[in-house]
Structure formats: C-alpha cells, structure tokens
Design a protein that fits this description.
single chain, alpha+beta, 2 domains, five-stranded antiparallel beta sheet, 12 helices, 21 strands, globular
Length: about 400
C-alpha cells in the first residue's frame, strides 16, 4: 500500500459539474483529491480487505441474532423500548439489507482492523462507485496507469444485482434524504440509478415532505403511497421521532431495515469482541459502564468482564478510543494513552450518550494524512473500497476522498 503522486485529469472539474458532483469541494476545502492515489497489490485487496470484510459482515449478522435475544443488550444499545419489537420483527421477517460500509485501519501489512460499521446510512457511495471508476478509466486511457492495472470496484454492478434479487421488475421504490444536502443526495441518487438499471421505478422525495395518509401509509410529495422506502436518515433518530409510531402499521418496507439499528451502533463493537474475542480483524472493545461495574464488583457478569478486560488491559492502556455508542464523523471521540488525552474531537454533539472503549489502531501516515479504508458491503459480500484521509487521527467531516488502484 503506497500513496503515489499522479497528474490530475485536465478537465475533471468540468466533468464533475456535468455529472452533478457538486460537493467535490466542501467548506472551502477539496473533498475529491486526485493529486495522488493509493496503490494496492492484488493480495492486499483480496486477502487483507475483501475476504475479511465479507467475514466481518457474516459475524455482524450473528451478532444481531445474539442481541435481539438479549433484552439487556437492547437496553445497552439504547434501542427505545417502545420500538424494540419493530427492530426484532424486521429481523425475524428477514427484511432485506442493501448496503453498508466497514471503516478499517490498514497500513498494507497484517490484518485490517475494524474501527466501526456504517451499516445504516453510509455516504460516499457515489464517489466510491462511480466517480473514482471514471478516474480509473480516464487515467488508464491516458497512460497514467499502466496496462493491467485494476480497481477494486464492483459496487454499482453489485447494487444493480442486489436490487434485482430483492425486488420484482417494475417495482416502485422511493428514495429520501434531507433536502438541499448535495452529499446525501449523491448517495440517494446513486442508489436510485442502480434501482432503475435493475428495472425498478425510482422516485425521490425530500424527507420533510413525506406525509401520512388517513390509512396510516407514508405518502410522497405527489401523494403516492410508499411501499418501499430507502431513507438516508439514521434509525437512531427515526426511532425517536413521532413518525416512528406509524412505521409498524404503514405496510412500508424500509431500506435499510430496522434491525440495522443494531449494527450502526458502536455498541456492536464490544458485542463482537465478546462473541469473537481474539479475531484478527477485531480490536478489544468494552462498554465503559461494564468496566466500571467490573472494577467495583457489580453485576452478574463482573468477574467475566474483569477477566476479559485483564487480557486486553495492556493493549488498551497503550492506546484506546472512547466513543459514544451513537456518533457520526468522529464527533465526541477521544483518543487516550494511559491517562493522557492524545487527541479529542472538538465536536461534542453526541457527548450525552453512553460510551464504549476500543483499543486504538493507529492509522498509517502519508504526507501528513491518515487514510481509512471504507469497505463496501452489498448484500452479503465486500464489492469495493473507497479511501478517505484526514490530517487528524480522528477521521472527521473535512476528510478527503482519494482514488485507488491495484498495481499491475
């Protein structure tokens, strides 16, 4: 894994405007950055990222089955009691999932480490699936990349196949996100594009324009009934909205399904460690409250937690990350070494939530930037990656998206 300086395409900004990639620059900073790219070997992609990510997804599904059978874990993950049945029934009905994104720490050597799973509303889909593929084809044609180079990117084709496997041709699907948010709509439109290519109808409606009929059905801004709704709006917020009371009786299939609320929650990380302790792609992780209870000798599992913590204590004291169970874009995250704060997010938006402790996996540094690998899961398989990099140890909302290729 290397970061290679490459010439930019002469007219890439014009192309970005033509295809509606209006957020290539954000907040006065470049978001899409093709002044360099990350180079991987085929073995690194297949052995260290693709296969492990597919296995991690299977492990996460096992974790869902474990969590829904444990009321205490539903409480730990802050699933509102009034809507736990909604989550459980969506799993038991086998409501289909479409996509998710693992964020992995990887330096080119040894196993990639799972940082978190964006299982519900991951963004950067358009730039991962489409814009970086166009970059690859253009640079290959220009001779910038050598013949025989490749890119790990079957994301769009996998989405088309997934929609085709889940829905009958001609099915009408609705897609929603917060209005006037180009980044969110980039993801929503990439989804709709794949659905249309699979033979579905794709309709868009801003989130705040969705209504409820007298029969309790969800309606779009043209009063069409929504039978299937892809919503780029997180379950942790939706389950706390008034609209949540109408979901069960709406006869609307939600994408992603309600059971994904258990996977987009950082409480998943200690559950995975408890179930698969020592797995090469996992970092030791614990609920902060469990550690406090174990130290004080409280709770039925105090001894078990204390033993597991003891086995990981040296690694955790060498470096650990404190994360709220509900948090996005690095908000309210703190990195510690011993008792010293190494780095702390200035965004404290999620500070009120319960926290987990996870062993710290340092990101590699290239020219002052630290990359995170986003491994895309479509259906049940890893089908491509996107790379974001940040100057901070905590990847935040001003990170840059970098293209990648597999060396010939």
């Amino acid at each position: 894994m290397q970061k290679i300086v490459l010439p930019e395409r002469p007219h890439w900004r014009d192309h970005a405007k033509e295809v509606g990639f209006t957020f290539a620059d954000m907040h006065g900073e470049p978001y899409w950055d093709e002044s360099s790219a990350y180079e991987f070997s085929l073995a690194q992609i297949e052995n260290d990222i693709e296969d492990p990510a597919t296995e991690l997804h299977s492990m996460c599904r096992e974790a869902v089955a474990h969590i829904i059978a444990n009321e205490g874990l539903m409480e730990r993950l802050a699933i509102p009691e009034a809507h736990r049945d909604l989550v459980v029934e969506s799993w038991r009905r086998e409501d289909p999932e479409i996509y998710g994104r693992f964020d992995l720490a990887y330096d080119g050597n040894g196993p990639a480490k799972l940082l978190e799973y964006n299982a519900d509303t991951p963004t950067s889909l358009y730039e991962s699936a489409a814009f970086q593929w166009q970059w690859f084809e253009d640079q290959l044609a220009a001779g910038v990349l050598s013949e025989g180079s490749d890119q790990f990117n079957g994301i769009h084709e996998a989405l088309v196949a997934r929609f085709g496997a889940v829905f009958e041709p001609g099915s009408d699907l609705h897609f929603t996100a917060v209005g006037d948010n180009p980044e969110d709509y980039g993801t929503v439109e990439a989804m709709g594009w794949a659905a249309r290519e699979a033979g579905m109808g794709a309709h868009y409606c801003d989130l705040d324009k969705i209504a409820i009929s007298e029969k309790g059905q969800f309606l779009d801004d043209q009063d069409r009934v929504m039978g299937v709704l892809f919503k780029l709006y997180p379950w942790e917020d939706l389950l706390r909205d008034d609209y949540a009371d109408h979901i069960a009786g709406s006869n609307c299939l939600f994408l992603e399904p309600a059971w994904k609320a258990l996977l987009s929650n950082k409480g998943l990380l200690p559950v995975l460690w408890q179930m698969f302790e020592g797995h090469p792609n996992l970092l030791p992780a614990f609920f902060e409250q469990d550690i406090s209870d174990a130290i004080a000798g409280r709770g039925a599992a105090a001894a078990e937690v204390a033993e597991a913590f003891g086995r990981a204590e040296a690694q955790l004291m060498a470096g650990r990350v404190s994360k709220p169970i509900l948090s996005r874009e690095g908000a309210s995250v703190t990195i510690l070494k011993g008792t010293e704060i190494v780095e702390q997010s200035q965004n404290t938006e999620y500070a009120e939530h319960p926290r987990i402790i996870q062993a710290y996996a340092p990101l590699p540094q290239f020219d002052g930037f630290r990359p995170v690998i986003g491994a895309w899961i479509i259906g049940d398989s890893c089908t491509g990656i996107g790379v974001r990099e940040d100057r901070s140890r905590i990847t935040q909302d001003l990170s840059r998206f970098k293209p990648h290729y597999i060396t010939a």
